[in-house]
Amino acid sequence: MALLEVNHLDVHFALRKGDVHALRDINFTLERGERLGIVGESGAGKSVAAFALLNLIAKPGFIAGGEVNFEGKTLNTMSERRLRKVRGNRMSMIFQDPMMTLNPVLSIGEQMIECLKAHRRISTKRARAIALDKLQQVQLPSPETRLAQYPHELSGGMRQRVIIAIALLLDPDIIIADEPTTALDVTIQAEIMALLLNLCEQHNVGLILITHDLGVVSQVTQRMLVMYAGRVIEQGPTREIINDPQHPYTQGLINALPQMATPGEQLNQIRGSMPSLSNLPGGCAFHPRCDFIKRADGQTRPACVEQVPGFVTSGNCQVACHMVAEMQEDRRLKEEGQ
């Protein structure tokens, strides 16, 4: 049994004009110590998925269907009291903006001690010693001094190290990192990601990394999910997807990386933009932006416009694309003909 299992997860937001489907039929697993990346453009549903795992979807959002199982126990049907024993304790989250996460009127030490005492019966002295140890683990300079400082007295990189230390305070089994380096300089981003990867490996902690940066995902994760308009459209081993992407959207994301463009020429980009979740196109949600919607004979694939694609297996990956399914069927017929 996997440490974390997500089965047919649906998240809706109740609006006056009707429910908006933010996540549709999300399925994946995470083993102990495994590193999973979730990638996609803004609006793909990555952060909603992260909040849904911890049952932190705020109203008017709600989990409309499916299950999030942690060690065989369903989190989305747990009472708030039982859920508190999992949140922060067994599953921690690193949010995008450390200034929004840290309390500006409490010192770093007070916040870390408060977190420990909320989950464990522990003395203040012992809690302070644990907090100091975690700050040392994340290589924060002068950790004794930092305990007495307030968030505004630290740089962005230091604040993010504090957030990682807080996530590690209770020795969790899973860390969910939602765009953990968004507000940082490029050099600091690399340091933070290397630190997070090293700590997860040392403590055998499962990592769910949510980002739009395929370069980071390729270096840090073992498996990845590619999301588009609230659905997973490709999933499998990271190296396999990066080296041989099957879905046209994944191909577009990789081709949009700066290193894929010819020096001096315009960067590659996916035409159009992510559709509104309240007005999704029929069939495959990506079809208005897809360069492969037409067959070799110039005719549009009717299925792309009319049917939501199911998953087909390609190598070790699962791909939700009518074109891939059609190519596999053509290949099978040719082999049978021989």
What do these coordinates show?
With 338 residues, the protein is of the alpha/beta class. The chain has two domains: 4-228, Rossmann fold; 231-262 and 282-337, no CATH class. 36% of the residues lie in helices and 23% in strands. It contains 13 helices and twelve strands. The chain has an eight-stranded mixed beta sheet with strand order 6-7-8-3-9-10-12-11, with helices on both faces. Strands 2-1-4-5 form a four-stranded antiparallel beta sheet, with helices on one face. The longest helix is centred in the middle third of the chain and has 18 residues, at 186-203. The mean pLDDT is 91.
List keywords for this structure.
338 residues; alpha/beta; 2 domains; 4-stranded antiparallel sheet; globular; Oligopep_ABC_C; EC 7.4.2.9; ATP-binding; ABC_Ni/Peptide_Import; membrane
